[in-house]
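Supplementary notes for students who missed Thursday's class. We covered one full example, reproduced here. Read the sequence, then the structure, then the short commentary at the end.
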Amino acid sequence: MQHLTSGELAKLLNITKYVVRHYEEQQIIQPAFIDVNGYHMYGEAEVYAMSHILLLKQLGFSLKEIKNIVEKKTDYTEALSSVLVHFENEITRLTKLKGNVQTILELQQTETYKLVEENKEDRYFACFEDVFVDEAYNLNLKKLAKWKNGNRNIVEDVSYAILENGSNVKVMYRTSLEEADYAFRAGTYYCKKICVELEDQLLEEIECFYKNLDLINAKFEHDLLILEEANLSAFYIKEMVYSLEVKAK
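Structure (token representation):
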């Protein structure tokens, strides 16, 4: 049977011999034998064992966790199931980030400032109390910081509803059905993302939004939902990204 030195094993698996030695010191892998010259020698079984260890490392397991798996102190199926859940959460997170980056790139191109139709699920909102909002509908962040629940970032969920043809404005945040003051029900919505620096520009974009609706003879409910796209706005220095939405009739 052929045996490899630690250097040869390292070259075969594209790692350094110091990694091999470190795993030995951690008693995660052992050589098949040590020859008369003191060389640590590895056979086919050790090659496959090391490949398995490197795979577990690539999956995100710590050396301690790998050792427990190798020594069968940890249920292998349970460990892999946990990793799968982590990967699915990461895929969701990265997909959202990817979407944000794509949207930013699109918003920088004039042709993407388009009116689109999107299917939306039920969305529920709670209104900020008056103590947190001034006459210009700006949030008092100092008071909000003292009030908000520390396990969520409410600022990322700030939205505005312009109701009853503009006569009533609500400053809101996303919440559950049980805590909701207002709901935008599931259905088809006319939507347009905009990027503005000044409040006057927002008013101009809202006016333009309604003109776009008139051009296509759109039938829609009058309540306008303005969503602050905090995650997208973070890519800009001065501008703010909003989504304007009305529900189609």
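Commentary. The mean pLDDT is 84. Residues 113-247 form a domain with the Multidrug-efflux Transporter 1 Regulator Bmrr; Chain A fold (CATH 3.20.80.10). If anything here is unclear, bring it to office hours.
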